Amino acid sequence: MPRVGMEPIRRAALVKATIAEVGLKGSLDVTVARIAKRAGVSSGLAHHYFGGKEDLLFAAMRHILTLYGASVRAQLLRAGTPRDRLAAIIRASFGPDNFEPHVIAAWLSFYVHAQSDPGARRLLGIYQARLGSNLTHALRPLASSRAPDIARTLASVIDGLYIRHALGGAPDGPQATARVLALADVLVDAA
Amino acid sequence: MPRVGMEPIRRAALVKATIAEVGLKGSLDVTVARIAKRAGVSSGLAHHYFGGKEDLLFAAMRHILTLYGASVRAQLLRAGTPRDRLAAIIRASFGPDNFEPHVIAAWLSFYVHAQSDPGARRLLGIYQARLGSNLTHALRPLASSRAPDIARTLASVIDGLYIRHALGGAPDGPQATARVLALADVLVDAA
DNA sequence: AACTTGATTGACTCATCAATCAACATAACA
DNA sequence: TGTTATGTTGATTGATGAGTCAATCAAGTT
Lengths: 191, 191
Fold this sequence. Notes:
- 2 copies of one chain form a homodimer.
- The first copy, chain A, starts with 6 loop residues before the first helix and ends with a helix.
- Chain A has 191 residues and is an all-alpha fold.
- Chain A contains 10 helices and no strands.
- Chain A is 80% helix and 0% strand.
- The mean pLDDT of chain A is 91.
- At the A-B interface, helix 7, helix 8, helix 9 and helix 10 of A face helix 7, helix 8, helix 9 and helix 10 of B.
């Protein structure tokens, strides 16, 4: 049933299947054949649309980052006060999407992968910079010159909570959000 | 030059070589042959002393945990006041040993591995429980009933800072220690 | 109808690696 | 001096998986 114009559909399906397989395995040790099968295509097609396994993994990583970025922007739209903006960023970081088991698994794997793959490291650098910048801007009216420092600490807690929840069976986004937000309040209030 | 009583020597060498290779690769995707070569023995010997690759990785993981535990105990011995004890635990977590690139890489990989390997997950559970318990005990005199909650937050920051430093080029243990300790002070002071 | 282009497959190649095994070397002991 | 324990090697096997390729099929295009 070959039709013309399948490329974007196949690419999306393969990226989605990649994330699913990575989540299932809990690591990047997945086979192109399995990914292709899940996407409902042959292994050859995966190589046709993506250069190879590496590019496929990279595309999956970028996709997750894109989703995260969109989620942050969506949350920020509904935020009025600086405190709201802070809450929005944190809530996005622990949103249900980011907290689904297979997405958590993908994030963890990508962290490790970033150690050896410069491209992956670059992507994570972008994520970290954006998170830091978002937090700093939201904190600026609340903590002026201390904003960058507080932002760094908050960013670390967010990353750390990811691991905890990833390994701890039952991830609880709202609880994680509340914890970070409470911490933010304390840090802002501390003279 | 085979002598009797080589077993402990070989085991130690293989575990050390495993950690080195994992650190070099930045992932658990290492070959038994390379590990064996680095340890100065044949690949067959690695299988002789350890059941297989899995057991070798597990032993390496346990070794790192053992080193960390010893480091915590050593730091705690020199601690007098509760504040000192707190500082000691944090300092151990960010001690030079734990912060060597190959150890960080091993930790990260083991985190990911714990998602699929129950044995690894168990080990990490022990680490997390011990860290939490140590922190809680140190915090008890400083924050009484709020101690467990503060401990959880601190543990998350510690984990999060690990990732940041692992991906951020130049790991700075003392700086990380200072950041966490400052955070602890703020949290304890907050009524 | 003939031709072109994109989509798609599955078999094939080639490399990698974990694990096994037979063989041999050395030491301890009888 | 055998005999047994331990230590050690490296060749081999068998499985797995990435990437390639020739061939096929369906839609447009002229």
